[in-house]
Amino acid sequence: MKKILLDTDIGGDIDDAVCLAYLLREPECQLLGITTVCGQPEKRAAVADAICRAAGREVPIVAGLDSTMQPVPIYPTPEGAGALENWPHNTYEKGDAPAFLYQKIRENPGETVLLGIGNMTNIATLFRSHPEAAGLLKGLYVMNGYFGGEPLPEPWYNWNSWADPLASQIVFGARAAVHRAVPLEVTQQLTVEAERAGEIFRADSDLTRAVLDFGGAWLKSAGKLTLHDPLAAVAIFHPDICGFERGFVTVETARESHMGGTAFRPSPEGNLEIARTVDRERFYRILGTTLLGA
Hints:
alpha/beta; 20% strand; two-stranded antiparallel sheet; globular; 12 helices; 11 strands; 294 residues
């Protein structure tokens, strides 16, 4: 059994909801708590609670930071939150997410894996406020970064870094017992057409119906489903699902044209590992079996 803390910007892109659903169904996951980040974190917390309730679970949830360490020009809102009227849920006010994360980590030293799948503001604030926190973790996993050969169309495609570059820099610089990042060029290999989403997530349970309800509008507008965040979660429980390379990551925090850009330097002395490959078919098999077979 692995003890997991999830930090998420759930409420928009459907893959955050899929990631949470996977954690709720993974038999080896003990979900200690959830923190939300990005614009309107209170609504995001309510979405997370609704999905947990749809799975028959009650999980501690704290609405976290919506102001970033480094200012960005937009304030994203959770467009999927309109579906809250269809599902029972608690309402939330902003809380102290970094303090909540630190409390849970201190209560479970050397046992907790922190999974970050939104912008890194809550986690970076945790590490800045409590420098020893990273060293108390069993693992730190993030869906963040882009290290592909072709330039991205826009810097914001690397969203989890671009949305708070300074926070991303702090998190990439942290030292944990296991520190792994799953970047965009790897998760992009897990893209299917929207029509295929129904094959993976049959609406035969309240949980999958909730996931599709909260993410359905986004899925329809995007026309495709890329399972960025679920890969980071699956990699915790199936670490050989990806091939990793050790090194250091730097983040651009000054040049607007490359803001949030990430660069990797391979080194056996590096503080983290980045995913380089993924076993696509095995990933789909694990995710589908866990969501539909539990």
